[in-house]
Amino acid sequence: MTRYFINDKMQLEEILKGGLVMTKKLAMLFVIVFALISVCIPTLACEECGNYYMVTTGNVNVRANPDINAKVIGWVSEGEYVEPLNFICTYDGRTWVQVDWGGRDGYISDKYLTYAFDDDDYDEGAIRTSVLMVTIGNVNVREWASIDSKVVTTIKCGTYVDAWMYYTSSDGRVWAEILNDDGTVFGYISTKYLNFIDEGLWTNLARYMKVGGGRVNVRSYASINAEDIGTVHKGDVFEVEYFIPTVDGRIWACCTQDDEYIGFISCKYLEPTKW
After folding, report:
1. Angstrom distances, CA of residue 76 to CA of 109, 252, 263
2. pLDDT, average across residues 128-155
3. What backbone torsions phi and psi does residue 19 show, to the nearest 5 degrees?
4. Are 85 and 98 spatial neighbours (Cβ–Cβ below 8 Å)?
């Protein structure tokens, strides 16, 4: 143990002053360390990453940092899926989900997310086939999605068929692309004569669709994880080239406007209309 011999009052004051400065520095260091630890504590194990979570309400902000006051760099809409990269707990009691947001980190409060499904159950952008039943007489199967196309065969009422894509024609008809057992294209049937067997498949498809409400993301492909290439707004009307159902239960419309390609919009936010 080191002993100090104080010869005068001035020397005592210098020692006390130095001790006070050191005490303040140490206190400040503890505050900084505590704050850093509080802000960045992963709260879930790595095995949680790779699962998908669904947005449960409205339009939810994506922030630049895990902080309620951080800059908003985008948003996700109710029903969209996100894949967490990490889970971060902050000093204010919030848990933030770190996601890939266009090549940079984005953060969403887990308050607005719920577990959806495991990565092993999801094939991004995979097209889901749907089962349909012929509802009337002998229905023509055509070579292409057009009333003027060649008839290749007919199918009887009550027959079940598999379809995977839905095309629209200039006369307003929607056509189901029917598949053979080996997955090759068999032909096209007007959905006017078909009933959808899949309960989760939305059947209100039309040549022209409009945005039913709010602000909706436009994707580069028929996938909730495809690149966000723009937004559309309530009342916007589009001409649909074709529809694609995907394995997560969505149907996507490939939209154009004035002969200009727009992108893919989830049919959850669209409704039939006239041009």
Report:
1. 11, 17, 17
2. 85
3. -65, -40
4. yes
Contact 169, 146 (CB under 8 A): yes
More confident residue, 45 or 220: 220
**81-85, 233-237, 243-247: lowest mean pLDDT where?**
243-247
**Helix (H, G, I), strand (E, B), or coil: what is residue 156?**
strand
8 Å CB contact between 224 and 218 = no
Name the CATH code of domain 208-272 (choices 3.40.50.300, 3.30.565.10, 3.30.750.200, 2.30.30.40).
2.30.30.40
The pair of structure tokens assigned to 165 is 């894509």
pTM: 0.47
What backbone phi and psi angles, to 5 degrees, belong to 117? -160, 165
Q: What is the mean pLDDT of residues 196-200?
A: 52
CATH 2.30.30.40 residue ranges of the chain are 41-121, 130-196, 208-272
- C-alpha distances in angstroms, 53 versus 70, 78, 97, 268? 22, 11, 10, 18
Q: What is the pLDDT of residue 11?
A: 52
